[in-house]
Amino acid sequence: MKEKARCLIIGSGPAGYTAAIYTSRANLNPILYSGMEPGGQLTTTTEVENFPGYPEGISGPEMMEQLKTQAQRFGADIRNGIITSADLKSNPKKITVDGQTEIEAETVIIATGATAKYLGLADEAKYAGMGVSACATCDGFFYRKKPVAVVGGGDTACEEATYLAGLASKVYLIVRKDFLRASKVMQERVLNDPKIEVLFNCNTAGLFGENGVEGAHIVRHMGEANEEKFDINIQGFFLAIGHKPNTDLFKGQLDLNEVGYIVTKPGTPKTNIEGVFAAGDVADPIYRQAITAAGSGCQAAIEAERYLSEKGL
Length: 313
Ligand code: NDP
What we know:
alpha/beta, 2 domains, seven-stranded mixed sheet, binds NADPH dihydro-nicotinamide-adenine-dinucleotide phosphate
């Protein structure tokens, strides 16, 4: 099946939905594909307290529903589907959805976001869905009154540890360095929470358990003279060690940086290919906030509109 679009938006986080709001209001009749995780990363968070306009805060999933409804109100065509290939160099650009539908799009806005990283231990795969998770807010509920661990020392790890402390019986925070890199306020929350024990200078060597995670093998001061090995008893093992941008589909076409983020012309959402724009975390290794993603979605929409009118499309 073939279809034509003036503007195709890939991704349904704050960047994608904001691009959809702006492009639909500009009569570009955008089609948006939601991708693997409809609503994006914010659907895996609890309370969003820092998005302007919500003085009492709002839950991540609720906010994403509202953005979706707002885009649909102006006619954005929001669909479930995963982009399986993209030829961005042709004009119009050719995008295949679910290996079947081919969309010929004059402009493409890439807002595919970023995905949680894992340590790479075989045990993470072995216990997937059986104690291993990269989303405390999605899965924390299953560990009420049970001991758990969170890996990482950044804001995500501290946020997740604090969240889990409200549910679990005990939370270990496994930090590979001797400090937390999270912001001061997040660090203080963690360090002052009696339910959280921070294991500094520690790495995870593996997990164990019969029918699910029952514990983790920890190595303190790995490879050093004072190396020490011990086990902790946990039933949930949560990864919070950063993210990988979702750009595999565009390798070899778009300019990407050394870790895979889309490189845009400074201060704009323009990629190295005319008519292709990037918005949100997929092009932002630095700020990675809902509000900055929404802002760049708006910029991408305005640039798509300008491109179409300049080309008379
Ligand atoms: P970060 O990159 O900031 O932190 C990743 C953490 O994981 C670091 O402590 C890092 O250790 C650790 N880590 C990475 N790889 C491994 C590994 N293989 N083994 C063990 N530990 C590892 O990612 P975050 O997801 O925490 O945050 C990303 C961005 O989002 C930041 O800019 C953050 O400020 C922001 N953010 C803001 C929030 C808020 O304001 N509410 C909430 C969440 C995130 P090391 O320090 O040794 O490198």
